[in-house]
Amino acid sequence: MSSININNKIIIPCESGDSILRSSLRNSIGIAYECNSGGCGACKVDLISGEVQNKYPDASSLTKRDVRKNRILACQNVPVGSIEINAEISGGSESYILPVKYNAKLISKEIISSDVVEFSFAIKSDVKYRPGQYFMLSICGLAERAYSVSSPDSEDGVIKFIIKKMDMGKVSSYLFDEINSGDVIGLDGPYGHAYLIENNCDVVCIAGGAGLSPIASIIRSLKKNGSTNKLHFFYGINFIEDLNIEYILRLIGDMSGSEYNFIPAITNDNENWSGEIGFIHQVVERCLPDFLNKEFYFCGPPVMTSAVQKMLMIEKSVPFERMHFDRFF
Ligand SMILES: Cc1cc2nc3c(=O)[nH]c(=O)nc-3n(C[C@H](O)[C@H](O)[C@H](O)COP(=O)(O)OP(=O)(O)OC[C@H]3O[C@@H](n4cnc5c(N)ncnc54)[C@H](O)[C@@H]3O)c2cc1C
Ligand code: FES
Which of 193, 215, 266, 279 is deepest in the core (most CB within 10 A)? Predict the structure, then answer.
């Protein structure tokens, strides 16, 4: 078995095929990370000695300077034998629920719009995660991608993901066009830091496109746990046809005792639309009455999450620790 010596302080075992990041998290060592997909660059570590297999040599988050300095992405490199690294260990990155591998069987698909579907999988063992976290979904022999859970924190052996079909996308196309009920995929998780914080603050959820998935998990968990926190839910989509109002009303309906505001917005105007128009960060800035004592959850493409983050930090002085987000690289 391979092993990893971290900061010359601790040596951990590494399961066959596991990246440096996953081995660390499975052993309760919080190496800094965000996407687990090679996109953000948050997980850079220094390789001091030993050999690694790099699963994503073209990752754009690693610069030529990083390569010259023997810096590697912990989420994309798998130790071959024993290795030594120096890494930033961050208390916030440690997993409260250690990531575990599961087999999951497709049980149903619910169409939300022409290119967005909610997939439900059955898992035999008790699967644990916090609302808003993501799993790595693997299709045997094809590829592995990160997908945020859309189901509430515990739903008796069923886990759900809202997934957008990407043109020519390997995994999303497989899920839309080829997978059948009863087929089995691999899951590994939970991962991610954008999970629901339990306190009395208002909850502001901002979803862009498929960013609806972790937001659905948060809203369903609030409902299931009888939360009385006020909910402000902003949902940004491109076209009026992308809004499945029946699905959304089922999602937010019956917020047992809690007040809520739902504000959808489209970017492409339509004569049949009387609601908000514009990018979702502009709509939040315009429509949220105040930005105090609120926890902000936002997910979607990097361009959307960056715009929301910039608006909250620069225009509204929201402290960083009140922002919980995942960028869908
Ligand atoms: C933390 C995190 C959470 C996420 N959660 C979700 C979620 O809940 N729901 C969701 O839908 N997504 C989510 N994602 C995104 C997801 O992981 C995938 O990146 C996405 O589904 C695309 O994967 P794919 O294999 O289908 O596409 P890929 O094969 O990775 O392709 C990516 C893009 O490249 C283009 N491309 C690929 N091959 C070619 C080619 N030969 N020529 C031209 N263009 C090409 C495709 O059109 C596509 O747009 C998340 C990502 C992260 C990092
Ligand atoms: S966590 Fe490794 S690149 Fe994002």
Answer: 215
